[in-house]
Amino acid sequence: MAEFVIRLADERGRLQEQVQTAASAEELRARFTQAGYYVYSVKARGLRARQKRIKLEGFLIFNQQFLTLIKAGVPAEGHIFATGPHGTGLGKGDAALDQWPALLETWLRAQGLLTVDKATVGMK
Fold first, then answer.
1. Do 100 and 90 form a contact (C-beta atoms < 8 A)?
2. Which residues contact 103 (CB under 8 A, 6 or more apart)?
3. What is the pTM of this model?
4. What is the mean pLDDT of the segment spanning 57-71?
5. Is residue 54 a contact partner of residue 30, using CB atoms and an 8 Å limit?
6. Cα angle 102, 106, 108; round to 5
């Protein structure tokens, strides 16, 4: 089952927006249409629903800034994922994005920016 945001109007024309669970958008639309509602839209809710494409200009600026870091000798590493808006790597639910925290930890350790707190792990 997936979550959807459904925009609809009742028999008096009052607009509503609800979050509903259904097997598909079509099933949800049919359910509310049969109940006498006028359905304006049904959109998937969650990570995939929030995806937006970045503009080419923004992507080129990012690449130029990244290249500048590398040319200046600043340790840098980049991971560009096919899906997910900025900030979703800390959330759970997408197999590719779920790798991001571990990638970050590995990079921070390689730079010496993240070390083991010996007191926390019981080392002397």
1. yes
2. 77, 79
3. 0.47
4. 91
5. no
6. 115
